[in-house]
Amino acid sequence: ETTDGNFSGYLALQGDILAVSAEHEGVSGAFRRGAVHVYQRDAGGPNRWGRVARLVPPVETPENIFFGQSLALDGDRLAVYNPVPAEIPFDSRRHHLRVYRRHLGGTDAWGQESALPLLPYPGMGGLMAMKHGRILLGSPESNWANPWDGHAGLYELDRGRWVTTTNDTVNAVD
After folding, report:
1. 3-state secondary structure of 92
2. CA–CA separation, 98 vs 109, rounded Å?
3. Which of 43, 140, 153, 174 is deepest in the core (most CB within 10 A)?
4. What is the pTM of this model?
């Protein structure tokens, strides 16, 4: 399968589930809004991968956000990051990390579980990992004065809600 949007720019695979980004894909008439395609083994027939979901950002999302620029998959949860466009003032930047959950909204449906606030560092989320109810975000190039510095942030699932538990600056060690 192909799209017009840099299909397979980013991938996440776990077990029988594969998430593939197309972060340049046009969505709802908007240029480069992005999409994430979710595939499942045997959904297309025995030993064939079939698409079971196409995730897109909300309709009010501006163009050029590149939804799906980083992906992390853990069981029935998928975290999708998109960078913050530079032209959007920082105070109005919201929800650039979304968590989707399988079976939310029906059998094998992938519904949005959470839209998480962005941590206040450029590039935060460009590096991402998810495991056991935790999402670790990284921002490796957040300081132009010292490009070896970076930031790390951690969200944890606490009684059904994602909460920020750590937001640290990481300095290069000589």
Report:
1. helix
2. 16
3. 153
4. 0.82
Phi, psi of 11 (to 5 degrees): -135, 150
Q: Are 33 and 68 in contact (CB under 8 A)?
A: no
Please write the tens of the pLDDT for every residue from 57-104. 876 666 667 788 889 999 999 999 887 666 666 555 555 789 999 999
Amino acid 44 reads: G
Q: Position 14: which residue type?
A: Q
- Contact residues for 21 (Cβ-Cβ < 8 A; gap 6+): 6, 7, 8, 9, 10, 11, 34, 35, 36, 37, 67, 68, 69, 71, 80
Please report, for residues 80, 98, 123, 168, 174, the alpha-carbon distance to residue 118 in angstroms, rounded to integers and kept in the order given. 12, 10, 10, 14, 30
Taking a C-beta distance cutoff of 8 angstroms, is the pair 26, 5 a contact?
yes
